[in-house]
Design brief:
Length: about 110
């Protein structure tokens, strides 16, 4: 009985650690999700050009909905009617994943 218990525990631990690997978006996935949400809300007059000093930290399970809430810092470069504008972007964002794609939401 003990012979089978230890491999079973090891397998359970390995599966649990593997499941945690996708618990937060990568920086690239987070930027893509934020860009899609931002452009959907602002329409075609505003486009996201780039992120500067992007920092995704403090990710934790959302208490109010599916996904994780992460602190996002840095700045975002927007193209507003052909004029680039740099805006600070420091706020928590909730990320959820459906069908392999991350989506950004207000927490």
């Amino acid at each position: 009985m003990t012979i089978f218990r230890n491999p079973a525990i090891a397998l359970s631990a390995a599966l649990a650690l593997t499941a945690c690997g996708g618990s937060k978006p990568s920086d690239a996935d987070a930027q893509k999700a934020i860009t899609a949400t931002f452009e959907r809300a602002m329409g075609s007059a505003v486009q996201v050009r780039e992120y500067r000093d992007f920092d995704l930290s403090g990710c934790r399970k959302s208490e109010t909905a599916d996904g994780v809430v992460c602190d996002v810092g840095g700045s975002i470069v927007l193209d507003i009617a052909g004029t680039p504008q740099v805006r600070p972007f420091v706020e928590p964002v909730r990320f959820s994943k459906a069908s392999g794609t991350w989506t950004a939401h207000r927490p």
